[in-house]
Each structure stands twice: as structure tokens, then as C-alpha cells.
């Protein structure tokens, strides 16, 4: 196996496609003058085969592309054709083509025209003998001299490395390390096994103890059952004796019940009279209390109304104070009126509820007192009265006392009714007075309504003006936020532009701006980048087509550019290229009409006086749908073509 042919394009000093003659299977020598590209040819071979160029950053890939006059190169490739007649490369072909293509954003391999991954290429080269662990299949410049000057120990290390001994030693050390780790793990496993065996012995002992515990527990349950059975028999016997006692007590209770029925019939008439007297007394007391409360509240209302009238007469001097005090007076009067009505209704409801509650409580108390009296009488009737005549005498005395109390209560009830009628008459007077006050309140309400209407109108007008002011504030805030966002975007775009611009060009543009400002030079229109505008989808095509021409400064004539260049040279202010409009002669390009492409110049927006400068930069370029169309148009129409993705195709 040997390298049969090398094809290079766009790599370092090789801009155009360069193909070598077929190499000899023996010894080949590359000769040439200084700067003819011998070292770059050697680097191109290493670029494909060696691991020297494996991990490339974006700037490293850009350094491999051709840099020179004319249009910049966006991609490069190196293709090596191997003679595989000895089948050293595991591919069933006598000729194998391996190509590596690199661009600013891509790095790809192709095997016989098919895209393959970097790992597949490395494995293929490993199988052919190009091992990364033994990179001595390429003898670099100065390597022989270093071998002759090596010490014996260094030369021994080199022979070990070439022979693969170092790899063996490294793998042996790794194997010994793994064996040591395995031995340590075995010791840990043995410790775990011993712990498990000890634990099993402990579990066996606990198992025997559990068997003994189960036997003893069984005996305990049998003893508990025997004890419970004896206790159950004793309880049954005791229950039988208690049932006999219960029957005897029931017989005695039946006799007592018969006696109680007789006593109830005798006392029934007395209880009715007592109940009626007690109810009348309580009702009279309740009505008296309610009437006193109403009278007190009515006096409070009258006093409050008199005070309010005096306050109104004092405060009617001014319109605003009259309005405020009239509203307060009206609300106060309404509250008092509603309060009186609600309190009157509540008093009636409470009175009825209390009467019913008192009746229920009295009934409950009388029932309990009857039961208690019957029991006391049953208990003490043998000792309270000596005979039946003494008992009747005591009852007649009790009846006389109750009749006397009843007469007194009826007189008191008559007095309370008279007082209640007086209070009702007084309430009627107060009601008439309230009605007169209501008529006055109605007049005040009319005045208040007019004032409230004017106040509402002014309030609506004020709210409308406040809403309008808020909307203006909101609009001002949104405009301010938009301006801040645009400023931030401008700063970010300026930073991105400065980062993408080469350092000497950026320094030169800054120097030009300073020189124009300091020396008052006119006729400078600015860089091409600032003078052009287009749709966002054409940005990539414009950037690739123009290249560094985007930073060329357009001036009115060559005198202006000469003055600026003199100052730049004197101050060492950087490098700038100028486009003087009086010296520009745009190429006469005949672009045919077609649906497959469109002139890039038609998609750009610029001022008419700058047209010659843009015709010089973009006049020969058209935009095509795809790369295939661009290749065909470039060959047939002698035009520079480019796709929207930025893939260029130049005319030959």
C-alpha cells in the first residue's frame, strides 16, 4: 500500500485545485524553491492521516483556509488516493480515496465519496498501520538529527515506544491495579460472608428460643381459659341472685306507684291555680320591664333628636357644611327610626318567645316539683302529719295564702296596664314628631341630591382626566422601554460587529472617524456595511460575497482618501481601504433574465450616489436557488454565483 495521488484545494497556499502526478511505489522526492508550498504539501498529508489536526477549534480551521488576494475561501479539502492492491486497508477495492473537508463551521471525512465519521476513519487507519500510539510512520524534519543526539536511555524508551513495549507496560500496570482492587473486594466479600454466617447462628438460637416461647404461651392461654371459665360461673350465680332482688323491688315499686296516683288527683286542682297565678305574675313583670325599656329608649331618641335639631340650626351657615351635616342628620334619623321599629318588633317577638319559654320551663319545673313532692310526701307522710285533720288544716292554709297572693298580682297587673297605655300614647306623640322630621329630611335630601349630582359630574371628569393621564404614562413607559431595548440591541450588535471585524481594520475605522472629526474632513460617506440594507435572509449571501469589502470606506474623491491615508500613516492608526467614487469604474456585466437566479444588487437598498461603489463590490454576483444551479450558471454565464446559505461558486 502507498499514496498514489494527492489532491488539494483551498488549503493554506493552495487556493485552486492542485493535483499531483501519480507517485512511485518506491521513493518519491518533492523539491521546489522557498515558498513554493513544500511544507504546506507535507502538512496537507498530515492533515488527513495524522492526529496532529484532530481537535480543531473554529479559529484553527479558519487558519487552514487559503488567505490571499481576491475572494476569500470558505472551505478547503485534501484528498489522498491510496493504492490498495495488497488489501492492507480493509476495503474491497484496489484504489481507496480518503478526503477531509474543512470550513469555518464544519470538519468532515469522505471515503470513496461517501460521508463517514471521524471514528470510522481512525479505526480504518489503525487497521492499516497508522496507529496514534505509534506515530512514527511520518518522519518529521529534524527527527533524524534528534535520534542521533539522543542518550542511550532515551533511545531505549523510543525503541520501546516504537515496538509497542510501552503500551504493554501501561496495560500491565493497569492489569495489576485491577488485580489489587479485585483482591481487596474479595477480602470485603469474605468479611461479609463471615458476618452472615454469624448472623445465621444467632438466628438459629433465636429460633429455638421462639419454639420454647410458643410452648409456654400455649400453656399460659390454657390457664387463662380455665380461670375465665371459673369467673364466668361465679358471675352467672351472682346475676341470678340479683334478678331475685330486682323482682322484689319491682313489687314494692308498684305499690308506691298506686299511692302516687292517688296523691296526684288530690293536688291537681291546687297545682292548676298555682300555675295560673305564677304565669300571670311573670307576664306582668315582663311587660313592665319591656315598657320601662321602651320608655327609656324613647326618651333617648327624643333627646338625640333635640340635639340634632340644635346642631342643624348652628351648621346651616355654609353650603358645604349644610350638605355634610344634612347627610349625617338624615342618616342618623333613618337609623333611629329603623332602630325604633326594629326594636319594637324585636320586643314583641322576644316577649312572645319568652312567654312560651317561661311556660315550657314552668311546666318542666312543676313536673319535677310534683315528682319530688310525691317522693318527699311518700318518704315523710308518716311523720309530717299526726292525722288526716291536721293535713287538711295545712292544705286550707296554703290555699288561703295562694288566693291572697293572686289578688295582689291582679292589682299590680291593672297598674302596669295603665302605665303601658301611657307609654303607648307617648310613643304616638314621638311618632308624629318623627314624621315631621322626615318631611324636613326630604327637603334636605333634595338639596343634597343636587349637590351630589354636581359632585358626581366633577368626579367623573376628574376620573376621565386621571385615566387619560395614566394612559399617557403607560404609553410613555412602553416607549421608554422600547428605546432602552433598542439601545441594548444596538450595543450588542456593535460589540458583535467589533468582535467579527479584524483588529487592524477595526482600529483603522476608529482612527478614520477620529481624523474626520478632528480635521473637519467632509465627503466621507462611511463603510459599505453602514451604507447598505437588505432583507435578513440575504445577510449571509451579502457577507460572503463582500468579505472584507464590507469595511471599505466610500469617499467622494481620491483627494479625500489621500489626506486621510497620510494622517493614518503618520499616526500609525491601522489599515483602511477606500473606494473613491470619482475613480470607480464599475464592470459592465450583462445579467440575463432567468427564474433560477437574480442579481444580488437588486436585493440591496442604498443611495443612488453610492451606486458605482456597490456595482464594483456586488455587480458580478447573482443569487441562485441551490449550489447545483450556481455551478451551472457560473460556467455558462461567466458570473459569480452564491446561494442564500452562503455557498459561493466563482466563474473560471
UniProtKB/TrEMBL annotation:
One of its GO terms (molecular function) is ATP hydrolysis activity. InterPro entries: P-loop_NTPase, RecF/RecN/SMC_N, SMC3_ABC_euk, SMC_hinge, SMC_hinge_sf. It comes from the Eukaryota. GO terms for cellular component: chromosome. Residues 320-345 are annotated as: Disordered. GO terms for biological process: cell division; chromosome organization; meiotic cell cycle. Keywords: Cell cycle, Cell division, Coiled coil, Mitosis, Nucleus. Residues 320-342 have a biased composition (Basic and acidic residues). Residues 522-634 form the SMC hinge domain. The keyword Isomerase does not apply. Residues 409-496 form a coiled coil. Belongs to the SMC family. SMC3 subfamily. This is SMC hinge domain-containing protein. It comes from Aegilops tauschii subsp. strangulata (Goatgrass).
